[in-house]
Write a structure and sequence with these properties.
The protein folds into three domains: 85 residues, no CATH class; 195 residues, no CATH class; 107 residues, Beta Barrel (OB fold (Dihydrolipoamide Acetyltransferase, E2P)), CATH 2.40.50. It is built from twelve helices and 15 strands. The strands form four sheets. The chain has a five-stranded antiparallel beta sheet with strand order 5-6-4-9-10, with helices on both faces. The protein is globular.
């Protein structure tokens, strides 16, 4: 994001976008000369027409005084009583492409503008999970996504900027560029499908609306059928989980999408606002459990191989490592562990050149395979010891090969 203490260079400011953001922030247009300038009165005036002073925004980039006048206009906006609007609403968007704004708000009993640390971490995590679920719903509607389309959703997150929180209840703000072109599949091919930021946001809004309707249906019927019916519009385990986290342990929360009027949306539309109360957390929790339980059964598989990549653990998480497989058709797999203690075993195996047998839920994401909720079954052998056994077992089937290494099927 831009530094709130540093004013942007006037050459980087689109004057039409600047005036549009001013009007959205409450400034009133009180005069103009076509193609040359517009004059504004600040927010909060009962009778802007009687305002003696004015803010003049130049429109002609080619005019010799453009840079000087634009710098003066920016300084005036940032130093007025509306300076908070400048920092929160205008500055983050003044030099970026058109961007739709997401705000994830959580109501708590903490002092205004703050949140308890754990709740703050949960709020940021909930916002991320909701954005990821919304992106995945663009590609496919599913009860539960697990690791599918993870690379695409990460590319969507990479296009998003995070803004400052506002005064009051704690708010996570995100700006999603409307014209961002995000490849749905990775790789060097130029023929793959492309998703645009605005289209992803529209799918996310539809999923939020369907989830809110399902919650409303649950309030009156105590039935989860609304969540099942909403799957075709983007309701999912991941989105229900995110909104449950947003609404629990406090007085509820809400999600607001402010559509950037600088982007073509077939005419202006009002902000999209979705509220989830503390009571709704129970329905969302039940829905998440229901959607997960009704997914296709997960089959655990065993992969045997050598550790070739280690990542540091994040926030006490169990960690991830890469495995060069010597069994089956998958040659390389990323392993996401379920137990932090197993990460130390993976480190020791890497340092000691040991072959591991690892069990987990094998899923494919693009060209990458993941072994999820994984556990290390055993250290099979040292790499040098395994050489002769690998050579003699090269013609065995996968199951027989596993039995050869273990003495029995694990």
């Amino acid at each position: 994001m831009t530094n709130p203490g540093v004013l942007p260079s006037p050459e980087r400011i689109d004057p039409e976008r600047f005036t549009l953001l001013l009007e959205e922030a409450g400034w009133k247009l009180v005069g103009a000369r076509r193609g040359q300038y517009k004059r504004f009165a600040p927010p909060g005036l009962n009778d802007p027409s009687g305002f003696q002073g004015s803010l003049i925004v130049p429109l002609d980039r080619a005019a010799p005084e453009f840079s000087q006048m634009m710098s003066a206009a920016v300084r005036e906006v940032s130093n007025t009583d509306a300076g908070d609007l400048w920092r929160r609403v205008i500055q983050p968007r003044i030099i970026v492409d058109t961007a739709d704004q997401f705000q994830f708000r959580k109501e708590t009993d903490a002092p205004p503008g703050t949140i308890r640390w754990k709740q703050g971490e949960e709020l940021v995590s909930a916002a991320r999970l909701a954005l990821v679920a919304g992106a995945k719903s663009y590609v496919e509607r599913s009860r539960r996504y697990s690791n599918r389309f993870g690379q695409f959703s990460n590319r969507f997150l990479d296009s998003i900027l995070m803004g400052q929180t506002g005064v009051g209840s704690y708010i996570v703000t995100a700006y999603a560029p409307t014209d961002a072109a995000i490849p749905i599949t990775s790789g060097l091919s130029t023929s793959g499908r492309i998703a645009h930021g605005r289209d992803i946001t529209l799918h996310f809004a539809a999923a939020l609306e369907a989830t809110a309707e399902a919650v409303e249906h649950y309030r009156t019927t105590s039935s989860l059928s609304g969540f099942d019916a909403g799957i075709s519009r983007g309701v999912s385990f991941e989105l229900s989980s995110a909104l449950e986290s947003l609404s629990r342990d406090g007085d509820g929360g809400d999600v607001t999408i402010t559509w950037d009027s600088g982007a073509d949306l077939f005419g202006d539309i009002p902000d999209s606002h979705f509220v989830f109360t503390r009571v709704d957390a129970q329905a969302l929790s039940r829905a998440a459990t229901h959607l997960a339980a009704e997914s296709e059964p997960v089959v655990r598989q065993t992969v045997i191989g050598r550790v070739h990549l280690l990542t540091k653990k994040h926030l006490g998480g169990p960690g991830v490592f890469g495995l060069d497989s010597i069994s089956g058709t998958v040659r390389k797999v990323r392993v996401r562990l379920s137990d932090a203690e197993d990460y130390h075993r993976a480190v020791n195996a890497h340092d000691g050149d040991l072959i591991l047998a690892v069990s987990g839920e094998l899923e494919r994401d693009g060209n990458m395979y993941w072994l999820l909720n994984a556990e290390i079954l055993s250290e099979v052998a040292h790499v040098d010891e395994l050489g002769e056994r690998l050579s003699s077992a090269s013609q065995l089937t996968d199951q027989a090969f596993t039995e050869e290494l273990f003495g029995e099927s694990p």
